[in-house]
Amino acid sequence: GEKTQFYHYKAKVPPPDFQKPGAICVTFHSAKGLEFDAVFVVGIDKWNAQKVQHKMLLFVACSRPRSLLTIIYEDMPPILERNLPENPEGYVDQREYHGKDVEDIF
């Protein structure tokens, strides 16, 4: 929608304006150095816990929120099975989605 800002560090556009209301959509790479009130991580269902790049990008994404981290997946991603503690702290909210259910979040 018109309140959504899209940012990619390689695009020739200015960084997101955090004073504007609405969502900011960024890639994992583009999130480096930025902070958000809430972060929704999507698209990691097939990520491999053995790939160092996947671990690094997940760390970047999970270290960006000030107060809320939500990881959305269909099946428990292998990278989360291996890297999340058995009882994650309250700031990690794991939710399963089934296809179009994810559209309701945005």
Question: How would you portray this structure in words?
Answer:
Helix content is 16%, strand content 25%. The protein is of the alpha/beta class and 106 residues long. The strands form two sheets. A three-stranded parallel sheet has the order 3-4-5, with no helix packed on it. Strands 1-2 form a two-stranded parallel sheet. Helix 1 (52-62) links the parallel strand 3 and strand 4. 12% of the residues are buried. The model is unreliable at 96-106 (pLDDT under 50).
Total count of helical runs of at least 4 residues: 2
| Main sheet makeup | 3 strands, parallel
Any idea what the shape is?
globular
Compute the separation of the termini in Å: 10 Å
Fraction of residues in β-strands? 15-25%
- Could you tell me the number of beta strands? 5
Oligomer: single chain
Mean pLDDT: 76
Query: Radius of gyration over alpha carbons?
Result: 14 Å
Strand and helix order: EEEHEHE
Q: What would you call the structural class? A: alpha/beta
Features:
alpha/beta; 3-stranded parallel beta sheet; 16% helix; two-stranded parallel ribbon; disordered C terminus; 106 residues
Topology:
Elements lengths: L4 E3 L16 E3 L9 E6 L10 H11 L2 E9 L4 H6 L8 E5 L10
Parallel strand pairs: 1-2, 3-4, 4-5
Summarize the structure.
By secondary structure, the protein is an alpha/beta fold. It is built from 2 helices and 5 strands.
